[in-house]
Amino acid sequence: MFQLHTIYIISLVSQSTSALVLSLLAWADRRAHWLIPLAIACGLHSAAIYLMPLWRGTGRWVPQAFSAAILILMLYLFHLGFQVLIFPHQRRSARMLAIVCATILLLSALASYSSLWCVEAAESAAIILLARTIHMVSKARMRELRGPLRATAILLFALALHFLVRLPFELYPSSRGLLLLRESTILLVTSMAFSFLAIYAAETRRRLHDESRLDALTGLPNRRAMEEGAAEQLKLAARHGRPCALLMVDLDHFKWLNDTWGHNVGDQALLAAGGLLLRAAREIENCNVARIGGEEFAMLLSDSSVAAAHALAEQLCGDMAALRIWVGEEEVGFTASVGVSALKTGETNWAEMLRRADVAMYKAKQEGRNRVMLCTDVLSNTLAEETTRTAFARFG
Question: Which pTM does this prediction carry?
Fold first, then answer.
């Protein structure tokens, strides 16, 4: 048996526990796969802490080559984990992995020739890897993770600074200062595991927040998200005197569609309608779309007159009628009724605007469905204002 310093014992237990916890979190939460390289890094560090005292009596180049390889691989895994977190859809390049593998082989060759050169080269490579990771983490545009990522960037910077300070001390392997620096480096690496857990907690909270504001079927914002966004937009519109319009879109005979063709076809109809509305919203500036009920969708158009909103509603109504769902060899079509309302002067209440659009939508259903209706209590005033503005523009 061998005796370990208290710092080594604490670090060994912490890193082993962190590796286990991060692995369990990655296994339980498949969307947190960015934790996998970080868990492996923690496991490698705990293995290095455990094995180094055992190898003190062996040949000098063996522990040096082992330490250098573990250090470079661990920092590469740190970089990879943060890369997957910050850029989840970015294609991974094999070039950096090839460079890391080549560096490890070079360090192993240097260790057999000169342990001092191996250590100096390993710490220089570690500084470069850390600099790349710090740059990536500090530039991440993730508002909800800003605090934990900044704390992690500070820890990474402190670790890089430690390696930089250690470079001249490595010339005196038996010095007390080098021993203290090595122990403090181990503590810094160990503390990284806690920052990983803090990032995971913040990322999970952000994801739950976003999912609570998304419709599970269509992926569109739900009523809660729409209300929050609309309240802010209507305040800005009222403050700057900008027009706003709201479209209430409701699929016709949706219960009959479900009862006749099954709920799977009904879900496909909702997906097709939501996709159509989302594509239309992306082509319009300052337009938000959401699924606010069973078969009801809403579109809020900022900086849009009621006439422009009416033209868009007519286009959407026709496009909706042209959609088809295939059930075996049979095709199923559906239509939608659309109600349009406009923001009254000085109004900031989303609920009233929605109520008027809802009334207009039900009027469209009463008139035969598959049509657009304007809210009558704002139509005359809005059209009068537009006529007046047109006359002034024409006659000066």
Answer: 0.69
